[in-house]
């Protein structure tokens, strides 16, 4: 659908520019090509960020795909790791200890009126590297803002639950 809309937009732009003269039409084709390149890079980057968020929730937050060998440094910046360490609320016998639970609700037990599944429902971009992750945390609805910087999670903020 996105490709169709891009093609329709290009066709309309070419029709309008062609009516104005041939040199303008050539410039319009170059401009449309540049816009496609920027749009493709934006879509690819957004897709990579969404894949990163899904991986982090699978490997660390919900630990549904945890192999115990995943290194947090691969997925989090130094800033986020410091914040995760500061948010850790329990005794820590083997440092470093990270509060991956800070990226989910504060609930500790499954919702008795649900199947108790933890899963992501949606990930929406807010711009400037921020994404809102909507999820079920053991059957409880939750939302967390996550900031991506240079391909890693750099910050997070639990939204009102």
CATH class: Alpha Beta
**Helical run tally:** 3
Quick one: how many beta strands?
Answer: 4
Unreliable spans are 1-20, 22-32
Biggest β-sheet description: 4 strands, antiparallel
Measured by DSSP, the beta-strand proportion falls in 15-25%
**Morphology call:** globular
> What is the correct CATH architecture?
Roll
- The proportion of residues forming helix, as a percent range, comes to 40-55%
Protein name: Lipoprotein
Signal peptide: 1-25
Keywords: Signal
Structure write-up:
Residues 1-25 form the signal peptide. This is Lipoprotein. Keywords: Signal. Helix content is 42%, strand content 21%. It has helices at 2-20, 22-61, 78-86, and strands at residues 119-127, 130-137, 140-149, 152-158. It has one domain (2-158): Nuclear Transport Factor 2, Chain: A, CATH 3.10.450. The protein contains 3 helices and 4 strands, in the order H-H-H-E-E-E-E. A 4-stranded antiparallel β-sheet has the order 1-2-3-4. It is α+β, with helices and mostly antiparallel strands and 161 residues long.
